[in-house]
Write a structure and sequence with these properties.
Elements lengths: L9 E5 L8 E5 L5 H11 L1 H23 L13 H4 L20
Antiparallel strand pairs: 1-2
Length: 104
Amino acid sequence: MTSSLVTATTARTVGGAPGEAATSVTWRSPDRGWRAARRSLRRHRQLHLLVLVPIAYFVIFKYIPMTNAIIAFKDFNVVDGVWGSPWADAPDRSSSRCRTTRRR
């Protein structure tokens, strides 16, 4: 039985330790790589469609909403939208709202 990496395209003799019989190993030629990949995609298309559903779920409901989470760091303007609004500046530490000590 041959694995997917070992095929009968090119034979090469690999010697072992002295006194052992040499074994013949066959290597896949590089030009068959794309053809084998296309055949594998066609052969396992139901598996790929089955995996595509959870991937689409995570992209739609988990990653796309993260792009709009930057609204917390923007000086949001409805006309400009999230991507057109400028970044919010740090609060001015000298204003009365941001004082850390109480006035007497």
